[in-house]
Amino acid sequence: MNIVVCIKQVPASSDVKIDPVTGVLIRDGNNTKMNPYDLYGIETALRIKEQNGATIKTITMGPPPAKAVLQESLWMGCDEAMLISDRKFGGADVVATAYTISQGIRKLGDFDLIVCGKQTTDGDTAQVGAEMAEYLGIPHIAYVEKVLEVKEKSIVVRASMDKTIETFEVMFPCLITIDKGHVTPRLPSYKRGKTMENTNIPMITFQDVIDQDETHYGLKGSPTQVERMFPPERNTDKIVLEGTVPEQVDRLTEILKDKKYI
Amino acid sequence: MAKKLTIHQEKVNQETAEAVIKVCPFGGLEYTNQQLNFTAGCKNCGLCAKKGPSGVVTEEIVQDSTPRIDKSKWVGVSVFVEVDVDGIHPVSFELIGKAKELAAVCQHPVYAILIGSKEKNDAYAEEILAYGVDKVYIYEDDAYSTFNMERYARCVEDFVSKVQPSVLLYGGTSLGRSFAPRVAAHFRTGLTADCTILGMKENSDLIQVRPAFGGNVMAQIVCPNHRPQMSTVRYKIFKMPEKVTPFGEKVYMDTSSLDKSSAIETLEIKEKEKVTDISEADVIVACGRAFKSKEDLAMAEELANLLGGVVAVTRPLIEAGFKDAKFQVGLSGRTVAPKLIINLGISGAVQYTAGMTGSQLIVSVNQDPSASIFDVSHYGIVGDVYQVVPQLIENIKKTKGIL
After folding, report:
1. Pairing with B175, which of B61, B126, B147, B369 sits 20 to 30 Å away (CA)?
2. How many domains are contained in chain A?
3. For the CA atoms of chain A, what is the radius of gyration?
């Protein structure tokens, strides 16, 4: 069977602040890492491969340095990787991102299963997987915590919803998004990395995708616009208690007593 | 109208390139072969033009050639009503309350969409009308008795095509968040996840505000040339509205022609064990990264017990395995609005604070006097939780006469 795992490179730290005076975003360092939920996606795919046999291809969209996460996926045990990258894909919101990746996946050939992380830690929307499924015309199940069985034409998965645990059987081809939970992602293997050092990671640009309508990609294909960014509202009537710590705690005790919490 | 960024290569050299690359927080620019170029990371935010070295990147507003939609043809602020094992999810009523506020600005009607089986729908529709919607659009069939992604999506798509609402809101539940994106992709329209503020312009453009980058930045997002405009909003972000004398009507939609096939079969639905739900608690003692080990949470538990509350934690503590994910406060956990919340050693990223700013009294303890948690607090103590908590416990015990 053919499995595609969608991954993303995200900032290592989500510590972004905005300067209230200049309005400039301040990001703490430029380090990046693989989106943590994608590690669970890759591990899920690798376990299916070990038990049922499969070819695993990973795909990401991003600037050229995003190749690093594809490399990492190969070192973990995935078979092939592909980067989707083009200036024309820049400025993409969820709709344009999902559409572009779905176009990239169509270039990978036939697939049975697409695995995504539940969400990324930078965008936090948890929407790209579901939107890709719609563009590929396949069903999807979100919040999958465990793959229970892989059959010839379908997969049985357990998903954790707010109030219920639900078990679904879904026909291939389909897409699942993986929550953290029952698997522990393996570390990349140095030995495997050595043997795969020269593996070529092909790149898809705008001229390679099937749909050549530029208005479907990047900024032009994005219905949403960020009008402005601003620091969150501050509470102006806050009271920071004064004195030594014991004095502050005594004061807090009085306040809680006054307000009848004690 | 759109923003167009242009790089002026004649002004690009090693020095200016490095300066402008530094300004971009997204890795949206690269300098290779003496050329500065945008990468796929570019978000078109224009920071490089505004804050980079002068003239290297410039921005201009261009009139794009895409045809404008006719906004007057898209009328109504609508809410997808979610029904789960306990009946209508209260987030749906909160959204109806907000929808009424939004609709008042642009004089639109308020709609609800209800999907389900015949026997229950009537009672649910009455419940919805009691919150003052103008019309409840009802899709009924035995095939809709439990949630199915594909069947429900076809109903909502049918609703959007026939009714053409300007706005469609969904609860930010696991169901809403996994289902709404399909509808958004289908209509190639915007869906803004986890909005914390919604507003309306007179021209019916929806103003959507959500925390961005998981950090301390709010982004205001609009979807000016697409309809319907869609958002998800977490439970307890908006207030429960008052009931009114019902005046709206029920509209039964024809479902006979809708495709009811599905590649998804639900094999089992098991209710999760009902545990103390932190979003229902009156008092919450919330613990953050200052807690060094799982065992140290015991003092927070003791404090919570004395105040008749429960202990909750932030995302880093969930990731460290200190507590089960259902005890997480924040946008990726639960939104809470208790009478009292005591934040212990929490720095105050928006991801977290947006999940608790509805609390009546917010008390925070942090060693760092500049921690942003204090900006959303009513009372702050600058100190170490390992010193503050034991003393607070002792004080409360004394007050209660236990000591």
Report:
1. B126
2. 1
3. 23
Structure tokens at A250: 């005594």
Short-list B61, B66, B20, B53, CA closest to B39:
B20
The model's pTM is: 0.83
Exposed/middle/buried for residue B4 (C-beta within 10 Å: 0-12, 13-18, 19+): middle
Distance CA B131, CA B153 (A): 25
- Selecting from B47, B351, B384 the residue whose C-beta is nearest the C-beta of A25 gives B47
Cβ atoms of residues B138 and B251 within 8 Å: yes
Q: Strand, helix or coil at B38?
A: strand
DSSP letter at A123 equals T
Whether residue B322 contacts residue B312, with contact meaning beta carbons closer than 8 Å, is answered with no
Please tell me what DSSP assigns to residue A142: E
A-chain residue closest to B38, CA distance? A87
- For residues A77 and A43, the answer to whether their CB atoms sit within 8 Å is no
Q: Which domains does chain B have, with CATH numbers?
A: 2-62 (3.30.70.20), 71-252 (3.40.50.620), 278-400 (3.40.50.1220)
Instruction: Pick the residue of B20, B39, B319 with the most A CBs within 10 A to test the interface with A by mutation.
Output: B39
C-alpha A43, offset from chain centre:
14
How many residues are given for chain B? Answer: 403
In a domain, A233, yes or no: no
Chain A CB contacts of B383 under 8 Å are 245, 248-249
Using the Cβ of A161 and the Cβ atoms of chain B, whether some distance falls under 8 Å is answered with: yes
**pLDDT class for A24, splitting at 50, 70, 90?**
low
The pLDDT tens digits for B69-94 are 899 999 999 999 999 988 999 999 99
Q: What is the ipTM of this complex?
A: 0.89
Element (H, E) at A143: strand A140-150
The residue of A31, A162, A217 whose CB has the most chain B CBs within 10 angstroms, and thus the best one to mutate to test that interface, is A162
Which residue of B179, B192, B378 is in closest CB contact with A224? B192
Whether the Cβ atoms of residue B344 and residue B322 lie closer than 8 Å to each other: no
How high is the mean pLDDT of chain B? 91
CA distances from B291 to B260, B278, B349, B393 (A): 51, 19, 17, 17
Q: Is residue A253 part of a domain?
A: no
Does A234 fall in a domain? no
CA torsion angle B356 B358 B362 B365 (round to 10): 20
Q: How many angstroms separate the CA atoms of B155 and B184, rounded?
A: 13
Instruction: Output the DSSP codes for B91-147.
Output: HHHHHHHHHHHHHHHHT--EEEEEEE-HHHHHHHHHHHHTT--SEEEEEE-GGGSS-
Burial (0-12, 13-18, 19+ Cβ within 10 Å), B73: exposed
> Both tokens of residue B319?
């990731």
- Taking the C-alpha atoms of residue A98 and residue A24, their distance in angstroms, rounded to an integer, is 28
Q: Is the pLDDT of residue B215 over 60?
A: no
- Domain of residue A21: give its range: 2-221
A107-150: per-residue pLDDT in tens? 999 999 999 999 988 878 899 999 999 999 999 999 999 999 99
CATH number at residue A172: 3.40.50.620
Tell whether omega for the bond before B90 is within 30 degrees of 0, i.e. cis.
Answer: no
B24: left (phi over 0), alpha (psi -120 to 50) or beta: beta
